[in-house]
Write a sequence for this structure.
């Protein structure tokens, strides 16, 4: 029997939950897994090169997101589609 510390257990649980959330929110598989990855606010802000304040303002203006309890996640494909729609309008 191997004993793991609280931090290692917490990391294992977070990784398992993230993998399950990604699997749950996948579409019919027509898009690559990478585009369906759930991103946190910090991850999306870093990818788009904007601040968290800017991202929050975009959310208020209609940027699609998922709220799971107190956490917010984004589907990369939905965000890119919404941004493309805004550009085209």
């Amino acid at each position: 029997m191997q004993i793991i510390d609280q931090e290692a257990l917490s990391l294992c649980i977070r990784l398992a939950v993230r993998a399950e959330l990604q699997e749950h929110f996948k579409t019919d598989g027509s898009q690559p897994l990478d585009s369906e990855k759930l991103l946190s606010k910090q991850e999306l802000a870093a990818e788009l090169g904007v601040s968290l304040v800017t991202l929050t303002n975009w959310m208020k203006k209609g940027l699609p997101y998922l709220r799971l309890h107190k956490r917010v996640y984004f589907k990369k494909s939905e965000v890119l589609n919404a941004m493309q729609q805004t550009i085209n309008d």
Observations:
- The chain has a mean pLDDT of 83.
- The radius of gyration is 16 Å.
- Residues 6-24 form the longest helix (19 residues).
